Amino acid sequence: MSKKAGLKAALGGGRKESTETREASKPVVIAATGELCRVLISSITPDPNQPRETFDPNFIDSLARKLQKDGQHQPITVVMTGPNQYKIRNGENRWKAAQKAGWEYIDAIVYEYEPAELTAPEQAEILRKQKSDNDDRRPLTPWEDIKACARYVELSGKKQGEAAEDLDLSKTDLSKRLKIFNGPEEIQMLVRAEALTNLNTLGSLVELWKLDQEYAAAEAQKILEAGQISSGAEQKYAARVKALKEGREVPGSKPAKKEQEPQTPKPMTFSAKKVNVAEKGVLEIEDGKGNAMRFKVPRSWKKDWEKIGEALFGGKL
After folding, report:
1. Could you tell me the pLDDT band of residue 202, with boundaries at 50, 70 and 90?
2. What's the pTM?
3. How many CA within 13 A on the CB side of residue 104?
4. Angstrom distance (rounded) from CA 59 to CA 138
5. Belongs to which family (predicted)?
């Protein structure tokens, strides 16, 4: 067999396939929803409504070095917003890294024109896809995740059960996120600072805020200053919430101090040991410890000496 005939046979041209074989085979390429292009980086802008709010400069630097060394393995996705204008749908970290690497163009899958005004359900669907894409790559921070879930529920207008299914969460986990998002600013700060990210503990603190705001605020401030929660705090908060709701004595609380009744001051005692005449008309009495008391006496004090001695010393001078 010639080389030409062998190639023809390898490509399937050397034999006639049956109709059944052609129908059973699958197409190599099916209809694509976007077109892969090389796009000028300066014509691309970020999406201000995407769920990621913070970008780690160290991660971007690392990604830039990988782009310079190995090239771009995964294109970003963009939508047209006007003539030669594009907005990032997914891949802002890669876009920032490409700029850091000094690139002029970036590989992007370009989707058709997107109007400036989108309906709430359309915004919700975009947000859901962006959250899913970030979860698959570099996860959102705990607060970004909570905020994205709350925004999706608001924009989609769906019930929590349906929204949770869309977000690949249980209804309980979504409910916990919404409780924190709708909770006080002081507790949200703990999530933003990543001093406390456990959803159960945060939920207990939100409940405590409703039942005992002063206590919850003090605990939140304590955690924020320490940068972490103390061991056993979650159980302590949960037990306190349960006790307050049931009207029982709060575990670990100290009984209130009883106000002490005012006491009648005891009369001062003075044990006299020595009597001196300090000056004319003044009698000084010492107790032997360096303490002294002075009394003014009338001119006729000599006549009353015996009476004074009897009063002070029991008759012994």
Report:
1. very high
2. 0.53
3. 0
4. 10
5. Belongs to the ParB family.
